[in-house]
Amino acid sequence: MDALIIFCVIVFWFLVVLGLRNWSVYLNEKRELLVHVSDVTLVDGFEKKEKKRKQRAGFIDKVTKYADEFADLGQRINFFSENLDVENWLKKSGNRYELSVARFQGMKMLFLTIGFFAAMFFFILGFPFSQFGLILLPLAGYFLPIIVIKQQVKKRQEAIRLDLPDFLDTISTSLQAGVSLDQALREVIRFFDGPIREEFTRFNQEIDLGVHRERAYRNLLDRNSNEEFQQLIKSLLQGLKLGVPVATTFNVQAVDMRQLRQEKVKELAAKASPKVTMVTTFIVAPVCILMIAGLMLLNMIYGENSIFNLLNF
Question: Which domains are present in the chain?
Fold first, then answer.
């Protein structure tokens, strides 16, 4: 029976890993198909996805409007979430749900209140350890928006880092073919989805509205903290002042960023080796030793050549 349980657990996790892998393959193939359709039909393949995002943002806006009632209280109780920090987080996360600083601060207090009433409900019903929930659930509600927004910032900047070299190669090729920078940006961003698309779409909109190009570049710097992206924008600013050809700037930056990506991968691989060794040393090896020792002990007690048989018990 024990062997059957272990076998079922192994099969379960194998199927979970296989399912995640197939889901990842599906998402990649879907993305490639959208890009291909956009290229062939000259239609924005990500337009439908963008509409879904806007609909989701509208739903979130309706739900979070109740946080406005707690905005003043949230701005006074601003532990680990000063207004300047919140404003910076919202900028660098893309602010997909169009939250204001006041509404974000109100969301903390709204979730804190929800956590408190949920803890009181569990406490009245007599759930185990519910007395600890009177403290933990309100704290979890308070810190939940802070943790989520920080994770969004990290995820967004990482997405920019991954898409940037391909984006630069495509822009560089377009510029070398004689296309202007603005026209190249408008055409190329149709084939990208995510932060790169959002940032340069907003950049083009600012240019169309008459914002000076240098100011638009600096707005890009303010909204993003990714080192590679900031290096690109600073190079464009310098090239704008010195008159360096834009195509050369994009080409050089693409090569440099691919080298930086390779170095980053090597660095992560070097950091992974000690972690794997630690897991093997402190988890895998002791478990294997305990399993072997346990089997030996059971064999000594219940096996054919057990101690009891040798002593004729």
Answer: 161-263 (1.20.81)
Residue 212 has pLDDT above 80, yes or no: yes
Please state, in angstroms and rounded to a whole number, the distance separating the CA atoms of residues 236 and 242: 10
Query: What's CA 212's distance to the chain center, in Å?
Result: 32
* H/E segment holding residue 266: helix 246-279
DSSP assignment string, 20-51 = HHHHHHHHHHHHHHHHHHHHHH-S-TTHHHHH
**pLDDT score for 142:** 93
d(CA 252, CA 247): 9
| 89 CB-near residues (< 8 Å, 6+ apart) | 149, 150, 153
Q: What is the pLDDT of residue 313?
A: 53
Angstrom distance (rounded) from CA 313 to CA 308: 5
Across the range 279-307, mean pLDDT stands at: 77
Instruction: Please enumerate in sequence order all residues whose Cβ is within 8 A of that of 189, keeping only pairs 6 or more positions apart, or say none.
Output: 196, 197, 200, 201, 204
Q: Long-range contacts made by residues 252-260, C-beta under 8 angstroms, separation at least 24?
A: 253/168, 254/165, 254/168, 254/169, 254/172, 256/231, 257/164, 257/165, 257/168, 257/228, 257/231, 257/232, 258/165, 260/228
pLDDT digits (tens, 9 = 90+) for 123-173: 888 888 888 888 899 999 999 999 999 999 999 988 888 888 888 888 888
Tokens 């893309």 found at: 94
Q: What is the largest CA-CA distance in the chain?
A: 99
Average pLDDT over the chain, rounded to whole? 81
Kindly report the number of other CB atoms within 10 A of residue 137's CB atom.
23
Tokens representing 37 are 């359709």
Give backbone dihedrals phi and psi of 305, rounded to 5 degrees, phi first: -105, 40
